[in-house]
Amino acid sequence: MQLAAALALLNVSVTIVSVWPTLAVRPSRLLSVDLALLVLALVAIGGAGRIARRWLAAVWVILVFARYVDISVRSLYGRGVNLYFDLTLVPDVGAMFAYVAQPRLLGALAVLTILVPLAIYVPSRWAIGRVADAAAAGVTRAALGVLATIVVIAGVVVPAPEGAARTGIATPVVATITGEVMEFWHDATVAAKRPLAPAPDVSSDLSAVRGADVLLVFVESYGVTSWERPAFVRTLDAPRERLRAAIADTSRAVVSGLVTSTTFGGESWLAHISLLSGTEVRDADINRRLMAERRDTLVTTFSRAGYSTTAIMPGLHAPWPEGRFYGFDRIFGAPDLGYEGPPFGWWDVTDQFIFAKLDAMLLAPHPRRPAFVFMPTISTHAPFTPVPPFQPDWSRMLTPSPYDTADLERAYDVQPDWTDLGPGYADALAYTTDTLASFLRRRADLDLVMVVLGDHQPPALVSGEGASWDVPVHVIASRAAVLDRLRGRGFIDGLTPPREPLTRMDGLLPFLLDAFGGAPAAPDPGP
Question: 427 and 385 in contact (C-beta within 8 Å)?
Fold first, then answer.
């Protein structure tokens, strides 16, 4: 009985699967090749001594942890772990979390860092001991050897159906770790030396937008899933209708497309640099190497045309010397924006505040040069709640008290539901949509060309398993020539994007340059 319990415990611990849409896990009915290999090893040596059992239990803790990380990363980002690139993000993510997390949460995590491995080690040590005892006995030793051999043959030797997993057998954790280490070695020795793509032509006379203010607004986590999942569509129908009305009532029009981002669920900067440089950037290494070069970008194109060029970066809290790659005249991080209101989300700042600050700093002053502004929003960043209240009185947004107490308390009462982040995502996106609509009405006097697009899909916890990497892009303007050129590229009238992507994120740059001025180019073949 104890042997059966020990085998079941060890098997379950390395065959856990994700509970979508959460970071929780549940046991599965899959069989573990890792356990079968452990059993064969114990059978071969006739059991194991006390010290060996301790080491085996420690190794088992690593396997359990690796299994959890692998399935959780796939659940969050729709991809497996990439040690070479993901490890470079650990210090930044840790620093970000330390900055925004409450001391109680940090203390709890520190305690869990000690207790969780111990909680895995103790029962694993017991279970390995029971299996080792059985592997030293005659009858049970032979039975264990036969059963383990069958599982190894079924999980390793017998070929799996093409494009499918082996029925009833979990992917071996040892194979996952081995694959990640080999991929790390390849990326560190081979991929890191691959040449960068040649600099694309980013020239344009900008004749179609000359004199207009051009805003490039990346909406955090704005993915096509917000147009596909019925629950999201229901929540967003009314805000989108208000946005449509604001566009029409201010004598503007909108065309929409769909592009495939170069990132999923995070790492927004990869989408930013892909669009602004016209170069496909899918990993941190290419991003770093590209930013060390001197290249023309969409920003420098506007600078040469006499525009003031500004980046408003509400999520930027640290020095960003690499930012000079883009060629902005000015870069405003969170400390430069001077937000004094109540904190919301990871970075405190709200989308409505940054639009109000944009207006006060760059659009309201006169006389001035036309402005090109690059601005990633922040309120739709995971975990999406609490969502800031929308404030109809924009004059309050730059004050220390932008909200009434009752509105603020209602917003704070809604905390993240880690078992289902979807409703919070839809509510946050509704807030940002209302902010855009209100801003367009407030500045109906502006000759404005606004490009609004997603940086990436929300994490797979929200967008679902196997979701595409597609994001909507909208161009709002009163300049018919700009919209006509985009229609020629496959953009369609209205806010609803087409079903199929028109190009990749980096391929969108030639579309925009052509729409903004210069000779028309041949249609892009797509992603």
Answer: yes
Closest CA to 500 of 129, 295, 205, 228: 228
Structural domains of the chain, ranges and CATH numbers in brackets:
2-192 (no CATH), 213-308+316-330+360-373+422-516 (3.40.720.10)
Distances in Å between the Cα of 364 and the Cα atoms of 213, 331, 355, 371, 443 are 12, 18, 12, 11, 10
The SS3 assignment for 21 reads coil
pLDDT over 70, % of the chain: 86
Q: Which residues contact 47 (CB under 8 A, 6 or more apart)?
A: 132, 133, 135, 136
- What angle is formed at CA 240 by the lines to CA 239 and CA 245, rounded to 5 degrees? 100
Write the DSSP string, 302-340: HHHTT-EEEEEETT--S--GGGGGTT-SEEEEHHHHT--
Q: What is the pLDDT of residues 107-163, one digit of tens each?
A: 666 666 778 888 888 899 898 888 888 888 777 888 888 888 888 887 776 555 544
Q: Which pairs count as long-range contacts for 352-355, CB under 8 Å and 24+ apart, including other chains?
A: 352/388, 352/390, 352/391, 352/394, 352/397, 352/402, 352/431, 352/435, 352/438, 353/397, 353/398, 353/402, 354/312, 354/314, 354/378, 355/435, 355/436, 355/439
pLDDT digits (tens, 9 = 90+) for 456-466: 999 888 888 77
Of 204, 225, 205, 199, nearest to 21 by C-alpha is 225
Q: Looking at the whole model, is its pTM more than 0.85?
A: no
3-state secondary structure of 453: strand
Per DSSP, 24 falls in state: -
pLDDT of residue 189: 65
Q: What is each CA distance from 396 to 349, 414, 454, in whole angstroms?
A: 14, 23, 28
Vertex 513: Cα angle to 509 and 518 (nearest 5)? 155
